[in-house]
Amino acid sequence: MFLALVETIKSEAQLVQENLLNDNVSRANEHATKALALLTDPVSNEIAERNERLAEELNNALTTLKASTESTSGISEDIEFVVSDLDGIFDEIVTSRIDPDQLNNSTIQALTIVELLDKVLSNYGDAYEVGFDMTNTSMMMDDNSNGTTSMSPMNRSSNISMANTSAAEGFELVNITSYQTAQVLATKYKSYLITK
Questions:
Q1: pTM here?
Q2: Residues 60 and 110 in one domain
Q3: DSSP class of residue 141?
Q4: Distance (Å, whole) CA 85 – CA 178
Q5: Is the sign of the CA dihedral 122, 127, 132, 137 positive or negative?
Q6: pLDDT 10s digits, 84-105
Q7: In this predicted structure, what is the pLDDT of residue 4?
Q8: Which residue segment(s) compose the domain that 161 sits in?
Q9: Burial of 174 (0-12, 13-18, 19+ CB in 10 A)
Q10: Is 12 left (phi over 0), alpha (psi -120 to 50) or beta?
């Protein structure tokens, strides 16, 4: 789902900025690499079909973001501008690519929420190297007394809490980059639930 992808790339850019401000250039570079990798050729081509200028601006901004993490001279002075520019580019892309009626469509909103949750759980799984797919819906089913199962974004959101406590259950944090991504996306997921 495109809207969840947008939120994921924006989250990675935000984490680049936060890690550069904390003088962790290597972790900022990992987030910038993830952000750039999310802009695949099919996604870029799809954006270019509607607006070639925006596709080029997005690619340039993500490339600049990555380059800002490869300098040994410290924090790039322009990082705040680059992240803000990315947000503006994405706002324009969403406006040009998605009809306003679709943005307010409850099905589109629900799909975005589910996709964000999947990204949160996937990143937590990577962070703790849990050895199973945390997005597997059979692991997120609630047994009811009548033998049926139910699943909703609210039921699935309880797994965010489970992921946050994975260390207490014998899993060790092995990938802080994925953990940071999961944390930021979890916050976006929760705010999406409240506002939508």
A1: 0.82
A2: no
A3: P
A4: 24
A5: negative
A6: 999 999 999 999 999 989 988 9
A7: 95
A8: 106-195
A9: exposed
A10: alpha
